[in-house]
Amino acid sequence: xxxxxxxxxxxxxxxxxxxxxxxxxxxxxxxxxxxxxxxxxxxxxxxxxxxxxxxxxxxxxxxxxxxxxxxxxxxxxxxxxxxxxxxxxxxxxxxxxxxxxxxxxxxxxxxxxxxxxxxxxxxxxxxxxx
Length: 130
Fold this sequence. Notes:
- By secondary structure, the chain is mostly helical.
- The chain has a single domain, classed as Recoverin, domain 1 (Orthogonal Bundle), CATH 1.10.238.20.
- 63% of the residues lie in helices and 3% in strands.
- The protein contains 7 helices and 2 strands, in the order ααααββααα.
- It has helices at 8-12, 21-38, 42-49, 58-71, 81-92, 94-104, 112-125, and strands at 74-75, 78-79.
- It has a two-stranded antiparallel ribbon with strand order 1-2.
- Strand 1 and strand 2 form a beta hairpin.
- Helix 4 crosses helix 7, helix 5 (81-92) crosses helix 6 and helix 6 crosses helix 7.
- The termini are far apart.
- The relative contact order is 0.18.
- Its main location: secreted.
- It is found in: Secreted.
- Belongs to the PBP/GOBP family.
- This is GL10359.
């Protein structure tokens, strides 16, 4: 489903960053799998993609966690800064990614789903810097 490029903002961090067709396909597949696993609706997915963080539904937060775990950015509720930098640095620039990491990577939620959601939210809100 095209709708499920929701967390591509974390992976690309800016609209100006171009993804290959292979990367886009991987993102869609990852997001689709997580959407099915967590049971998020199309409306919830579209809202998250648009940067609407008003939906506090635990399913949305666990969707973010699932996606970030499948991407390798998060393991057991802990961000992996080296993985984020290795994957995003070549796309967006190492210094820019490090600047956003300094703002976002220390965030923690009550559980791994909330932590991942807060990380996604922070990266999304700071995507213009990249």
